[in-house]
Write a structure and sequence with these properties.
Blueprint (H helix, E strand, L loop, with lengths): L13 E2 L10 H16 L6 H15 L6 E4 L2 H11 L5 E5 L4 H9 L4 E5 L12 E7 L11 H11 L2 E5 L14 E5 L11 E4 L4 H5 L38 H17 L1 H21 L12 E5 L5 H6 L2 E2 L1 E3 L2 E5 L6 H14 L2
Parallel strand pairs: 1-10, 3-4, 3-5, 5-6, 6-7
Antiparallel strand pairs: 2-8, 7-8, 9-12, 11-12
Helix pairs in contact: 1-7, 2-7, 3-4, 8-10
């Protein structure tokens, strides 16, 4: 994209696989190298300052107060907390074949009623006895975008709560303020693995209903006074749900988050979706039909996942997900990348 700083990235492949992991900006790579060198030399480095910088950056990207943001390492940690807070017999409505990290903790509560529905009809399936609707904003397998406005309205109408996993959308799609929101950052937010953010409920009753089961000393109001014995005074903010951080990840993550913040989600989406639409048009010319995912930078073609190893050998990195050949276009990709992929697919289909 035109506003991308020169030399921001240094890929050695045609990386069309952001739905699996995003490239790290070179500034983040350098910061991480320096932090590792400092640790090897025994020089103190305040990486906790990086945690707070990342928390604040994510809050700005999501458009929520920083006090609502908890920092952990995986989606499962936070969906498990939410699952644990539900009463016995509560009904949870899930989209069919949504990502395991989102849905599995609810299945592990054997006393919950789990119901699934197609993504496109999820809002219509909310019932008066539904306690929670949990869904990914964009589906991992094929990029389909959930109608979050309709789901949220249906949930409110029936007194249900909403949980949105923004892992495949944060960075290019606005973060919808659900009752609970979770997101990993190593994809579209250009961070290393090891960081997930949780936007805790604004509703005081919902907030109080979450038990910080996985928290340790970092969840204390004054963490350094909470190192020994049980935590006596949990943080008043969502930091009470913090998980001990993978500090080196945050050193690099603040650079990826800063770049997304600088570019802006609207500009990122315009760029990413334009490339995806170029790819869709090229697939149509080849007589290939992808899974319909309008407005998404993720494009999956059923049955072509088997080509992933061949494409990788040609220097094109995509994913095989549920048998789909999944491409995911982001800020470091260009029209030339799209055309190269289409050319290889054209040769493979001859």
């Amino acid at each position: 994209m035109d506003s991308l700083p020169e030399g921001a990235f240094a890929p050695q492949t045609t990386h069309l696989n952001t739905a699996s992991f995003g490239l790290l900006p070179q500034s983040g790579v350098r910061a991480l190298q320096e932090a590792v060198a400092a640790a090897a030399a025994g020089r103190p480095t305040d990486m906790f300052a990086d945690v707070e910088a990342c928390r604040a950056a994510f809050a700005r990207i999501a458009g929520v107060p920083v006090e609502r943001v908890a920092a952990g390492s995986s989606i499962t940690e936070y969906t498990a907390l939410i699952a644990a807070a539900l009463p016995e017999g509560a009904e949870v409505l899930l989209a069919e074949a949504d990502f395991a990290s989102l849905v599995n903790p609810f299945h592990m509560r054997r006393d919950l009623k789990i119901r699934t529905a197609p993504l496109e009809s999820l809002a219509d399936e909310v019932r008066p006895d539904t306690a929670l609707v949990a869904v990914s904003a964009a589906q991992s397998a094929d990029g389909r975008i959930a109608d979050l406005a309709a789901i949220r309205e249906a949930a409110r109408r029936h007194g249900a709560r909403t949980l949105v996993d923004a892992s495949q959308s944060a960075g290019w799609l606005p973060v919808t303020d659900a009752d609970y929101t979770v997101a990993v950052t190593y994809k579209w937010l250009l961070c290393p693995r090891g960081i997930a953010f949780f936007i805790a409920p604004e509703d005081p009753e919902l907030f109080a209903g979450l038990n910080p089961l996985l928290s340790g000393w970092v969840a204390g109001e004054n963490p350094w006074d909470s190192c020994y014995g049980p935590v006596q005074d949990f943080a008043r903010s969502a930091r009470r749900f913090d998980i001990s951080p993978s500090l080196f990840s945050y050193v690099a993550a603040r650079h990826g988050l800063a770049l997304i913040e600088q570019l802006g989600a609207a500009a990122v989406r315009e760029h990413d979706v334009a490339l995806a639409d170029r790819y869709r048009a090229g697939l149509a010319d080849l007589g290939i039909t992808p899974v319909p995912s309008p407005g998404s930078p993720i494009v999956s073609v059923p049955g072509l996942g088997r080509l992933q190893p061949e494409l990788s050998r040609a220097g094109l990195e995509l994913s095989n997900r549920a048998g789909n050949l999944r491409a995911a276009f982001h800020v470091y990709n260009t029209a030339a990348d799209v055309d190269r992929l289409l050319g290889v697919l054209a040769d493979a289909s001859r």
